[in-house]
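Quarterly update from the structural biology core.
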Amino acid sequence: MTTTHTTLGTTAPLDVSPLGLGCMGMSEFYGTRDESEATRTIHRALDLGVTFLDTADMYGPFTNEQLVGSAIASSSQGRDAVQLATKFGNERLPDGTRLGVNGKPEYVRSACDASLQRLGVDHIDLYYQHRVDKTVPIEETVGAMAELVQAGKVRHLGLSEASAETIRRAHAVHPITALQTEYSLFTRHLEDEIWGVLSELGIGLVPYSPLGRGLLTGAITAETDLEESDSRTTAYFPRFQGEALQSNLQLVAKVREIAERLGCTPGQLALAWVLSRSGRDGVGVAPIPGTKRVAYLEENHGALEVELTSDVVEDLETAVPRDAVRGDRYGDLSSIDA
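Predicted structure, tokenized:
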């Protein structure tokens, strides 16, 4: 029996669908764009009860918010059915030029107003700082974000890729509802310290790339010819390169063996593992696997029906030990708060 919602946070709780949808790849980074299929994917997600939608101003840049806002407006469910999350902080120009990370209070305010306009809504349910600006005290950034809550423009606040110390300092200014960070069978760094902080402070977790950027679906092989515009072909993603890819695919093969035994796909099994973390130590977990196609959305949704026994979890974690994955999750980790 699948749950109808997951609660992120306890101090400032937000109920979301147990499984969300990451919309980034609909506009950039993962090859060819097809806005019609992307819109159908969002509509199908809402039909399935996947109502927690994730975007950001830098995706596109800017065009992904417009796409998501338009899809919500044209859906049969409408705005009230959606838990809408977006982010600021990775500042870009319309031509894609990256200006760096910006956490200045005046930028926070202007970025929010711009996102509201592009999305075509009067409030954002969950507003994240996309990356921590190490040149601006987190207290100043979150103070400006708190003003947005007071103004009714934002309902809940989040951080993305923030360290344990930053989370504590931010939460002291205004309750943080959720941390968004990478988390999957392939990426488990947050279990060392951050998980305990989330549990202590009553903050939820929104894992992005819960399928290892597609590796854990089993759809990518050594022979897969990704599009030239797919960022996974670049050195920015070391896990997809050369010997690292070969080694990581051996781990995926082990996940596939367990999945076949259970009658599900490797991706569904890997996603079910992330979903099974929800509620542990009181931390609500709502992963946001990204896709731009209806078929993959429907496959991901099937993970909600996969029941994991403690024996299966043990088998998975034996098959994919924490430190077995080859390659850093990013080729450049300088923008990650640590």
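The CA atoms of residues 188 and 322 lie 6 Å apart.
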